[in-house]
Amino acid sequence: MTNKFSLIARAATAACALALTVTGATAGDYPDRPISMTVPWAAGGGTDVVARIVAAGLEEQLGAPVNVVNRTGGGGVVGHAAIADAKPDGYTVGFITAEINMMHHLGMTDLDHRSYKLIAMINGEPAGIHVRADSEYETMQDLLDTIASGSKRMTSSGTAAGGVYHLALGGMLLEAGLGTDAVIWVPSQGAAPALQELVADATDFVMAQLPEAQSIVDAGQARTLAVMSAERLDGFEDVPTLKEATGLDVTMSGMRALAVPADTPDEIVATLSEAAAALVESDSFRERMAQGGYGIHYLNGEDLTALLDRRDEQMGEIIQALGLAR
């Protein structure tokens, strides 16, 4: 006769064997079903466009569907929180942006880049300054002179309050010796809605990446006055740097990177890291990025962590200087 202790022991052994089998399947067979890529910004903006190019490339590398899901709201907090809080099984991958080094300094969330395991940086683009095609500002100096004169109430947009391009504007104003309140920032859920507002004459200018504005520039609805980079960009050689246009030596760029929840198993992180490294070297990915006008700026997880450690401190100092720290 089998006693109850023997039954318990057998049940425990079976449970352990099942757990080992499930764990092994999760790590060894990953991925064996579709992956969701969470993007914290609106569809149609630069981050969304690059995310979809990356998703298509990861599908090729991993052999599993990768579906982009836009989780907007809260100035990027909603999407970044959804990535950090997702089940750490590798089936939710996030596309985090430079705002992860800013939101906690602004008192919007406790999240920072240490809330994730970082896979790789894929892309980072400098800010451009864009106006409507029929704007009275023919040059960047014209725009800056009007801001400095205080003759009219100037507005700008491009991302959430305290986002990377809001800080870019603040840095530009400070370098010009102007108060950060010289231009009113109109928060948006990314470049796409901000550029729509620009075309609708709701703002005076927009801070956004050059590829993000390219479609409305090509359509004759907007012009790009300058870019906040050290050198002119490939594919946009007609656009002067801010320093060339005004003498102001200020640069600012975004960051787009793959990340997963902090408790994701190392084996899955390794699989995704290998896929990302292969992705940026693939001809098809490079062609898609070039077609969109987007550069490739790759860093592995370790190097990206070091970069974001430094950038977190830098952004905190800028936000403090702008009086936005909470």
From TrEMBL:
Residues 1-27 form the signal peptide. The keyword Signal applies. SUPFAM superfamilies: Periplasmic binding protein-like II. The keyword Signal applies. It comes from the Bacteria. Keywords: Receptor, Signal. PANTHER family: BLR1237 PROTEIN, TRICARBOXYLATE-BINDING PROTEIN. Belongs to the UPF0065 (bug) family. This is Tripartite-type tricarboxylate transporter, receptor component TctC. The lineage of its organism: Bacteria, Pseudomonadati, Pseudomonadota, Alphaproteobacteria, Rhodobacterales.
